[in-house]
Amino acid sequence: MSIKIIFEQMLVLFFMMVTGFVCYKKHFVDDNGYKSMSSIIVNILNPLLIISGVLNKKVGYSGKIIGENILLVFILFLTLIIVSLIYIKIARTSKEEVSSYRLMIMFSNLGFMGIPLVSEVYGTKAIIFVAFYILGYNILIYTYGIYLAAKDNTGTSTKFELKNMFNPGVAACIIAIILFVFKITVPRFVGSFVSYMGNASVPFSMMAIGISLAGTNLKEVFMNARLISFSVAKMLIIPIVCILIMKNFGFDSEALGIFALMISMPVGSIVTLIETEYGGKDSSICSSGIALTTVFSIITIPIVSLFA
User: Fold this and answer.
1) By the 8 A CB rule, do 216 and 24 touch?
2) Where are the domains of the chain?
C-alpha cells in the first residue's frame, strides 16, 4: 500500500468526521438525530455499499486470491482471540474489566470505517473481501462476544439469541457473495440506485463517528493512562507484529493490505451495545476506548500501512 494514498484518504475521512463533530456542536443534529442516522447507515447505506462492490461488475479475482482472503479472515479473528487473552495477563486487567478489554481488542470498526477506507484505497471491487470479514465478525460477536459479556463469576453465560446474528449487514454480505460467485447481473437502473445509495455510506459513516466523538469528554479520555497504553497496543503494536509475521507466508499483496486495514481499525461501537445489553455493565470503558482509538486511527493507520 502507498503511505501517501492511505494518508490522503485518512485526511479525507478525518475532515468528514470534523464535519459531523461541528454539526453536533452547532446543534444541527442532536442525539436522537445521531441514532436515526446510525440506523440508516447500518441498515441501509452500508449494506448497499457492500452489494454495490460486486453488482454488475467484472471482478477478476482468482480462486487463489479469494481463498487467501477467506483464510486471512480466520487468521485475523483467531489471532485477536489469543492476543486478547495475552493482553489481559500482561496488563493485569481487573476481573471486572476483562470482558471490556477483550471485546475492544477483538471487535473493531469494520463497518463504519473499514468499508469506506477499503473502498477508497482498493476500489469498490475489493469490498467483497470486507464482506467476508464482516460475516466472520458478526458470527463471532453474536456468539463468543455475547458469551464474554454475559459470563458471570461461575463461568456460565446467558441471553444468547441466534436471531441476533441475522441483520441487514449479514444479509448484504450473503447477497454480495452469491452475486460474486454466480456472476448475477441486474438491470442498470437497479445497479445505479444501489451504487448511489452505497456511495453515501462513506460521508455519512464518517460524520456519524464525528458526532459520536462530539458527545464524548475527550479531555478526560486523553488523561486516562491505562486507556492510552491499551490504544497504543491495539492500534500499533498488535497490528504491526501480526503484519510482519503474515508477510513471511507469501500472501497476495492486496489480500494482505486489506488484512492490514482490518486489523488496524479502531474499536467498534457494537462493543458498548454488547456490554450494556448482555453484560449489564458500565460501558464507559468501552465508550472511552472507542473515542480514543478512533482519534488515534488518523495517525496510526497510515503508520501501520507502512509495514503491509
Assistant:
1) no
2) 3-305
Nearest to 37 by CA among 278, 192, 269: 269
Please give the Cα distance from 71 to 2 (Å, whole number): 24
Q: Is the pTM of this model over 0.70?
A: yes
Q: Which CATH number fits domain 3-305: 1.20.1530.20, 3.40.190.10, 3.30.1120.10, 1.10.760.10?
A: 1.20.1530.20
Least confident window among 57-66, 118-127, 238-247: 57-66
pLDDT value, residue 281: 62
Question: d(Cα 132, Cα 143) in Å, to the nearest integer?
Answer: 17
Map residue 195 onto helix, strand or coil.
helix
Mean pLDDT for 170-182 is 85
Tell me if 241 sits within 8 A of 65, measured CB to CB.
no
Classify residue 108 by its DSSP letter.
B
